[in-house]
């Protein structure tokens, strides 16, 4: 089946957002700006945390992992998107499957990381006296390893199932990158197993992790409300408010995209939603976490002072 697949389709045509020349220029500038900010912001967070011993805590350990995931996501999608805007809008069959693999990997890893970060904030606020034990270096490494392993197993399953499909109706992908929903639309063989696995993964990775995260924050808010001083409440809430903003934006768009059957997909609308979790969220993550965090600001100043010498 895979041989037949590659015989029928050797490359895909990526439709993108618009074929109007003036809009192409606008979109190029927009996505180049998003990629530049996302890449520089996440690399800066990685460097800042790595070179500041004061930031070598569980919260920032997970933030480094999040920065790595965001770089993986944007570098998988945006460079090819920018290339397609200035040249022929095609991607090889192998390139499309590789893009699907790395994007789905980063998507699953990000969702799992959000849960790990929510658990870290839950322990820090609800069990502060046991924080060093419950979030020891070994526990953090175990959680991070689980995030990467589970996400790579997930993407391996989806990519292998996609490679078993036959694409013969059309090679025009009505999207700006190779994602599961638009590719399933092009298959001329049954996609029931693919849809079932995508739905199952979304229930587990998105809905399941979202519920765990919300439960963690319910406990966190309950603990914050028990703090007697207003200043104490503000300080406690500031440690988790940034994470809550990012989580709410990310989960809502991912659940919207993957929780539905393929027959109900509106690919034109889904393009706009996909921009949020492929481009906007990775760009905003460094800004949200740094602008609202005094410790990271101090670390950034030290990095800038070091490179100015």
Automatic annotation (TrEMBL):
PROSITE patterns: G_PROTEIN_RECEP_F1_2 (PS50262). It is found in: Cell membrane. GO terms for molecular function: G protein-coupled receptor activity; odorant binding; olfactory receptor activity. GO terms for cellular component: plasma membrane. Its main location: membrane. InterPro entries: GPCR_Rhodpsn, GPCR_Rhodpsn_7TM, Olfact_rcpt, Olfactory_GPCR. It is a multi-pass membrane protein. This is G-protein coupled receptors family 1 profile domain-containing protein. It comes from Monodelphis domestica.
